[in-house]
Specification:
- By secondary structure, this protein is mainly α.
- Helices cover 76% and strands 0% of the residues.
Length: 181
């Protein structure tokens, strides 16, 4: 076994020496070309990292359109509960579709977030939300769980015991989700 390890060590040292000899025999032009190639590869890697960082930043901006709306709405005069209610409203909207009334109820319910109705209403109204788009999101969620007729889905979305959308918003959502086609 010692003899085998000795030969491996000799082979390794020989390859190392051969590499050093090859490097030493290169002309200055070859060395300059190798250096330029290494610099080019380093520059390409740096550019690729910049592009990846730009893509990540772009995805963050796409994923947080509500964040910008919050900053617009977050005036220095907001109370702590108002700021927290806005943040909670944004989180709920990022998870699924909500009607205006449904979101206010979720934020103000004791079983929900427990904000005052005034703070919940302020938070929801301070956001720039497309309620038709939210109704379409809710309709798609319902259809992914079970089948609905167009009329049944509109009733579910607009019911005071359901999602609490207006009939107009519910109709829009049901049509966008494909229940009425």
């Amino acid at each position: 076994m010692k003899k085998f390890l000795k030969w491996i060590l000799i082979a390794f040292v020989g390859l190392l020496a051969l590499g050093m000899i090859i490097e030493a025999t290169k002309s200055p032009e070859q060395k300059a070309a190798d250096a330029a190639a290494r610099e080019q590869k380093a520059a390409e890697r740096a550019e690729a990292k910049k592009q990846e960082a730009a893509r990540v930043e772009e995805k963050k901006e796409e994923a947080a359109p509500v964040e910008a709306k919050k900053e617009e709405a977050a005036a220095p005069s907001l109370t702590g509960p108002q700021k927290n209610a806005i943040r909670s409203a944004e989180q709920y909207l990022s998870m699924g579709g909500f009607s205006r009334n449904g979101l206010i109820n979720q934020l103000s319910a004791d079983a929900g977030e427990g904000f005052s109705v005034a703070d919940a209403t302020f938070a929801v109204d301070s956001l720039n939300v497309d309620w038709n788009e939210q109704a379409a999101k809710s309709a798609a969620q319902y259809l992914s769980m079970q089948g609905f007729s167009c009329k049944g889905l509109i009733e579910q979305l607009s019911s005071s015991a359901g999602e609490k959308y207006t009939v107009s918003q519910a109709t829009f959502g049901a049509r966008q989700a494909g229940a009425c086609n």
